[in-house]
Specification:
Blueprint (H helix, E strand, L loop, with lengths): L1 E4 L2 H6 L1 E2 L5 H13 L8 H10 L26 H11 L2 H10 L7 H7 L3 H19 L3 H29 L6 E3 L2 E4 L7 E3 L6 E5 L7 E3 L9 E5 L16 H7 L1 H13 L2 E2 H8 L3 H13 L3 E6 L2 E6 L1 H7 L3 H4 L13
Parallel strand pairs: 1-5, 2-6, 6-8
Antiparallel strand pairs: 1-4, 3-4, 7-8, 9-11, 10-11
Helix pairs in contact: 2-7, 4-7, 5-6, 6-7, 9-10, 10-12, 11-12
Length: 339
């Protein structure tokens, strides 16, 4: 177990990241592939990546172990900038990291050259990172950003309602918060960390895939980061589109069926979050959500100034294809074409 100790200054400086971190998502997705970890809801991403995969990208797996991730992979929005930044960013700390992998297993020639600081291997590392980014991250970046932004809004509502204590206590079921100590189910080299007034950055990540990651704890000038997975069901939104059963689409219309399945997979969601997931305006999302609520398939509640929608038991049954028994419950559904 890892215990993170907070002072009042740390609590005041702790914040929730408002946006996705591209380097974080790239490294975590590579680690998931390198260690053959499963990722809930990421099946379509894997299938699409397989069609774009370049075999030499597997050389990047040489930089991972079951528990270690290379923080020196520096990713930029432009892949050319990524190649240059990563090639230039392998400093002494990065080379020491690769040397450390050699104590766990035999290094490949590529990893040995990186540990030695060989220039051609650094350039190759930059090229490999940029190629992987173009195949695995960039095509999904807008959607990743929307998912992380939605998670930020959800935590911000918690923060407004119950303060940081509520956010930390509800971060994950396996995390325990008892002021001033946050206990994590991890087995790092350190068993206790004092934040020393730096606070903590809570970074949600799509590719965290069920695991917690800590970064920046050993650099006194940096704010430490706790990377945590977005709740698993929301990863289903990584699919290219929500694909409700054909019979459900015929009954409700394409957008309302997609809204119902989206709430089943990733709810509860605010009107804005639902609109973002469906690619429609908040006004249109509100209209469709109202129709679903009138039919008893969803319910809505007000949290502060935000309306949050969640699926009902009837909606759950209907969204999962139990058409015959559940269809009787939608007799009040307004009949009409797709809006």
């Amino acid at each position: 177990m890892l215990k993170i100790r907070f002072t009042e200054q740390d609590l005041a400086r702790t914040r929730i990241a408002p946006a996705a971190d591209m380097s974080c998502e790239l490294v975590l997705s590579l680690h998931m592939l390198a260690t053959r970890r499963s990722g809930s809801g990421l099946g379509q991403w894997r299938e699409q990546l397989a069609r774009r995969w370049r075999p030499r990208s597997a050389m990047l797996f040489d930089l991972f172990s079951a528990t270690d991730l290379p923080e020196f992979l520096t990713v930029r929005q432009d892949g050319r900038d990524t190649a240059e930044a990563t090639a230039a960013g392998l400093d002494r700390t990065g080379r020491d990291y690769v040397h450390g992998l050699g104590r766990l297993r035999r290094l490949t020639p590529f990893a040995r050259d990186l540990a030695a600081g060989e220039r051609r291997s650094r350039v190759l590392l930059g090229d490999l990172t940029a190629e992987y980014q173009a195949a695995a991250i960039t095509p999904y970046w807008e959607r990743i950003g929307l998912l992380v932004a939605a998670e930020h809004r959800r935590r911000a509502r918690q923060l407004a309602a119950g303060g940081l204590d509520e956010v930390l206590a509800a971060l994950r079921p396996d995390i325990h918060w008892e002021r001033p100590v946050l206990t994590l189910p991890m087995s790092p080299c350190l068993t206790e960390v004092d934040l020393g007034g730096r606070g903590l950055l809570l970074q949600p990540a799509v590719f965290a895939s069920g695991r917690l990651v800590i970064a920046g704890f050993e650099a006194p000038q940096e704010q430490p980061v706790l990377i945590y997975p977005i709740p698993g069901d929301r990863l289903l939104l990584m699919d290219e589109q929500v694909s409700p059963p054909p019979a459900l689409t015929a009954l409700l219309g394409r957008t309302r069926a997609a809204a119902l399945c989206t709430l089943a997979a990733g709810g509860p969601l605010s009107t804005t979050e639902l609109a973002t997931a469906l690619g429609i305006s908040p006004a249109t999302a509100s209209q469709h959500a109202g129709i679903l609520a009138d039919a008893g398939l969803t319910a809505k509640e007000r949290q502060g100034g935000t309306v949050v929608h969640h699926i009902t038991l009837l909606g759950e049954v209907l969204s999962k294809g139990g058409m015959e028994g559940a269809a009787k419950g939608v007799s009040r559904l307004l009949v009409g074409g797709e809006g």
